[in-house]
Write a structure and sequence with these properties.
There is one protein chain. This protein has three domains: 2-214; 239-333; 336-492, Heat Shock Protein 90 (2-Layer Sandwich). It is 73% helix and 9% strand. It has helices spanning 2-74, 77-100, 105-133, 139-143, 147-288, 295-334, 344-354, 356-362, 378-394, 452-462; strands spanning 339-342, 365-368, 374-377, 403-411, 414-421, 466-471, 477-484. A five-stranded mixed beta sheet has the order 2-4-5-7-6, with helices on one face. A two-stranded antiparallel sheet has the order 1-3. A hairpin with a 5-residue loop joins β6 and β7 (477-484). Keywords: Coiled coil, Kinase, Membrane, Phosphoprotein, Transferase, Transmembrane, Transmembrane helix. It catalyses: ATP + protein L-histidine = ADP + protein N-phospho-L-histidine.
């Protein structure tokens, strides 16, 4: 089911992605079509502008011809002024047309011919005006053009018509291209709109499907969380009952063990006290009748009994320490935690001060770096850190100047406290073993019952934290205590 769901999700993702790719392509096509339509529009406008310029040139030619005839017929100098003004405008207009048609070789050729004919035509008109000014009648010029004038004028008109026809042809072609471009743009825009609608519908469908799947998954998670919370509560209650039962059992067993242990210790003391008079008796017997005291009797009274009593006393003392440690753990497990804001820097300083005599005696360097404040049980966290620092002092590497560093920092909403030393180190295979009750690691040349680190881990768990070790033989050890920044109220209840 999960595999089919993943395949469906992948298909939806690919479909939506393809839709957006198509939408991007359509958008690019719309932009391209719009740009082409704009280019065609500019070409059409350009053609119209050329046509208008040719028409303006024709009007200038007609105006200058009218001015010449008016002057030849009337002799009014105002016609002459109009002639000269128009003659001055014609070269500029021809140049404007040349610039507008510079991209059309045919029109360039025509405009060159037009410029030459215009110069020739202006020369002929100036000759007729000069003849009028010289006193001629001017009737010929006023009534009828000569053959040369007619040919020049006709050629100018033909060139103008050819230029107009060329621009008209271009205009028709460009308007047709513009219409096709607009049609193409419309088609692409409609296709883009349809694609957008399809992508939107697909996205909405995929989103609704995903939301339904999320809602279903959320409901399943909620059901699982409810089941998990119930299981956790049930398991927690079972653990609390088991813990309480273990504590009661440890307390009862410790007390039950202490009674016979006290008897054994008492009888051992009596046996020890009886050895002295018994030895004196053997001494007197040896003086009075040496033959009645055998070597076995003498050895038993003077060697075996004291040695056996010593073994018994050592064993009972060790058992007494173990019973006291079990009772201490039992009492600590029943103690109600009292959360408070603990200045960890001051706490570490007080621990170091309490061990300063031993630190100075061994020449150890202790570095205490800043540690964040924690809301927790002061006594419990003090016992944890004291045990870790004491172990660091106890298990230094002989012949190596001791160095112990205590530091802390906030990490992911928790406070991480590290106690690092450069001592003898711990074999990696024993990193978990050392936290077990009555288990120790390495050379057993230091006093202890293997309870300290087990007590540390139990306290760390009660404080809502964890304890771990990172070490290698002969490379020192680093113990990391992870605590919540604030002890939860329910963790302070009696368990």
């Amino acid at each position: 089911m999960m595999r089919s769901q993943r395949r469906a999700n992948r298909a939806i993702f690919l479909a939506v992605a393809a839709g957006f790719v198509m939408l991007a392509v359509a958008a690019a096509a719309v932009v391209w079509a719009f740009q082409r339509a704009q280019d065609y529009s500019e070409l059409v406008a350009h053609t119209i502008e050329v046509e208008a310029a040719v028409a303006d040139l024709n009007r200038l030619n007609e105006r200058i011809e009218t001015a010449r005839r008016g002057y030849l017929l009337e002799g009014d100098p105002r016609f002459l002024d109009t002639f000269e003004a128009t003659a001055a405008e014609i070269p500029g207009q021809i140049q404007r047309i040349a610039e507008l048609t510079a991209d059309n070789p045919e029109q360039v050729k025509r405009i060159t011919d037009f410029r030459g004919l215009t110069d020739q035509y202006l020369g002929l008109m100036r000759e007729s005006i000069a003849d009028k000014q010289a006193g001629g009648s001017g009737v010929k010029g006023a009534s009828l053009l000569d053959e040369e004038d007619i040919q020049v004028v006709q050629r100018l008109r033909d060139l103008a018509d050819e230029m107009s026809l060329e621009e008209r042809r271009l205009l028709i072609a460009r308007e047709s291209d513009e219409k096709r471009s607009v049609y193409l743009s419309t088609v692409i825009a409609v296709a883009a709109a349809v694609t957008l609608i399809l992508v939107a519908l697909g996205t909405i469908w995929a989103t609704r499907r995903t939301l339904r799947a999320l809602a279903s998954t959320g409901q399943q998670l909620q059901n699982l969380n409810e089941d998990l919370e119930s299981a956790v509560l049930e398991r927690t209650a079972e653990l609390q009952r088991a813990n309480a039962e273990i504590q009661r059992f440890a307390y009862i067993v410790s007390h039950d063990l202490r009674s016979p242990l006290v008897n054994v210790m008492g009888f051992t003391a009596e046996l020890d006290a009886a050895i002295k008079p018994l030895g004196e008796l053997i001494d007197k017997a040896e003086e009075a009748a040496p033959e009645i005291v055998t070597d076995e009797t003498r050895y038993a009274v003077r060697e075996d009994l004291p040695e056996a009593i010593g073994f018994i006393r050592t064993s009972t003392e060790k058992m007494d320490r173990l019973i006291n440690a079990i009772l201490r753990l039992s009492r600590e497990g029943r103690r109600v935690l009292a959360p408070e804001a603990v200045d960890m820097n001051a706490l570490v300083s007080s621990i170091v001060d309490s061990l300063q005599h031993r630190i100075d005696e061994l020449g150890i360097t202790v570095e205490a770096e800043p540690v964040p404040t924690v809301v927790t049980d002061r006594l419990a966290v003090e016992q944890v850190l004291s045990n870790l620092v004491e172990n660091a002092i106890k298990y230094l590497k002989p012949g190596r100047p001791g160095r112990i560093t205590v530091r802390g920092r906030k990490n992911a909403g928790r406070v991480l406290i590290e106690v690092e030393d450069n001592g003898r180190g711990i074999d990696p295979k024993d990193h978990e073993r050392i936290f077990d009750l009555f288990r120790r690691s390495g050379t057993q040349d230091q006093p202890g019952e293997g309870i300290g680190l087990a007590h540390v881990r139990a306290l760390a768990y009660r404080l809502g934290g964890t304890i771990s070790c990172e070490s290698a033989l002969d490379e020192g050890a680093t113990f990391r205590l992870s605590l919540p920044t604030a002890l939860a109220p329910q963790q302070g209840s009696n368990t």
